[in-house]
Amino acid sequence: QKEVEQNSGPLSVPEGAIASLNCTYSDRGSQSFFWYRQYSGKSPELIMFIYSNGDKEDGRFTAQLNKASQYVSLLIRDSQPSDSATYLCAATNTGNQFYFGTGTSLTVIP
Amino acid sequence: SAVISQKPSRDICQRGTSLTIQCQVDSQVTMMFWYRQQPGQSLTLIATANQGSEATYESGFVIDKFPISRPNLTFSTLTVSNMSPEDSSIYLCSVTWTSGETQYFGPGTRLLVL
């Protein structure tokens, strides 16, 4: 079982819609969760991190964490074509090791 | 965050040769890591570069193939030795100030082995 799992997609949404990206993790002791965005040919850049159950909002992005169900999600409101990228979910396990999911490819259609 | 640079940004190499990739940070960081990202794949951790001591390698990666140096808190190198086409990949360094906290990535080195 992989430490972090994501639906590889591709996920397509129309411009202006909400994009919902999901991620599950296997280590119940994981404490920290991260969402990175990676444009084609570029390195990953941090969008958000979340440590506590519930929602965390930053502009058009909302991260949601449910430790009981062991999932974390990222919502992108008012999606723009510039949001088209691969989104990587990452979690740290009880040993503070970082694990990345395989990424979800998002395409926002104008 | 930090400004992270990598050299070279890309290279094309012949089978059997070695390439050393440099990672430079504009401030002192606690931890530095080296990742590999093969085409269409996610990130795979190669090793943690430890300042003043031997790197800590992940399963499947060995020092003879991927020797790493970290002489100080702002600089590290990764060497890909005796390269084969299977080593064609993007190599990324990342840094953090606290174990388990946000990692910040360099721009990557795109390696093609012929």
What would your notes on this structure say?
The complex is a heterodimer of chains A (110) and B (114). By secondary structure, chain A is mainly β. Chain A has no helices and eleven strands. Chain A has strands at residues 4-6, 11-14, 19-25, 32-38, 45-50, 54-58, 61-66, 71-76, 85-92, 98-100, 104-109. In chain A, a hairpin with a 4-residue loop joins strand 7 and strand 8. The termini of chain B are far apart. The model of chain B has no long low-confidence stretch (mean pLDDT 94). By secondary structure, chain B is mainly β. In chain B, strands 2, 4, 5, 6, 9, 10 and 11 form a seven-stranded mixed beta sheet that branches. Chain B has a four-stranded antiparallel beta sheet with strand order 1-3-8-7, with no helix packed on it. Chain B has no helices and eleven strands. The interface between A and B is medium-sized, with 19 and 17 residues.
Describe the secondary-structure layout.
The complex is a heterodimer of chains A (110) and B (114).
Chain A: E1 4-6, E2 11-14, E3 19-25, E4 32-38, E5 45-50, E6 54-58, E7 61-66, E8 71-76, E9 85-92, E10 98-100, E11 104-109
Parallel strand pairs in A: 2-11
Antiparallel strand pairs in A: 1-3, 3-8, 4-5, 4-9, 6-7, 7-8, 9-10, 9-11
Chain B: E1 4-7, E2 10-13, E3 19-25, E4 31-37, E5 43-49, E6 56-57, E7 68-72, E8 75-80, E9 89-96, E10 104-105, E11 109-113
Parallel strand pairs in B: 2-11
Antiparallel strand pairs in B: 1-3, 3-8, 4-5, 4-9, 5-6, 7-8, 9-10, 9-11
